[in-house]
Write a structure and sequence with these properties.
This protein is an alpha+beta fold and about 100 residues long. Helices cover about 50% and strands about 20% of the residues. A 3-stranded antiparallel β-sheet has the order 1-3-2.
Length: about 100
Amino acid sequence: MSAVSRHPRHELVPLLSSPVRLSIVAALAAVDRAEFGAVRDLVDISDSVLSKQAATLEGAGWVAVSKGRVGRRPRTWLALTDEGRSVYRRHLAALRAIAGL
């Protein structure tokens, strides 16, 4: 390797090194937005774990959290921001590059 080339691991996003956060982002990448309970069930985690990890991803600017009602029931939706989608794509590209070495 030349001094100019960099190993693809340098493109990995540290915040997505958590399997739970990566799973949440992957679930959201497939949809425009998802209801909190659907993400919780898909990723197979508790409400409290999803809440904490969603707050971390929201703090990074990668997930938008919105609240509303369906009938009389309160609901929370999660969605990837444009930045979140971009970061996720970059992370996946780095993983693919590493696997292809």
